[in-house]
Amino acid sequence: MKNKFAFVLLTALVVFFADQISKFFVSSNMSLNQSIPLINNIFHLTYIHNTGAGFGILKDRTFILILISIVVIGYLLYFIKDIKNTERTLQILVGFMLGGTAGNLLDRLMYGSVIDFLDFRIWPIFNLADSFLTVGVIALIFYFWKK
Q1: Is 116 among the residues known to form the active site?
Q2: Range of the domain at 57
Q3: Is the pTM for the entire model greater than 0.70?
């Protein structure tokens, strides 16, 4: 795909839909606060609603989190123009962050909270959007550090 905008947006859409489908599956098949051990005491599916950001910061500050998400999405869309057509890795990482941010933003707009369900017991419960955002941000740091 030659068009970097289309490539980033396609990547973001894949992330967004994977996130939303996984959240739909969990919320449709589990009761709120239900936990299903997949690997006992190591990895569970635990369905919760998170009114904050990562690690519970800004709990019940939905409006602020919505504003932050909109600003991040706006910046990422603006940043695409600065990416070279040959920088596929950078395009993928921006797509990860864009799709992850959009996935959690939609939850906040629809429910006032984010659906989380991946529970490793030693870490706060999270979702696919959080995973893609984290991978995108950490990989982006290494990407620019290498340059």
Answers
A1: yes
A2: 4-146
A3: yes
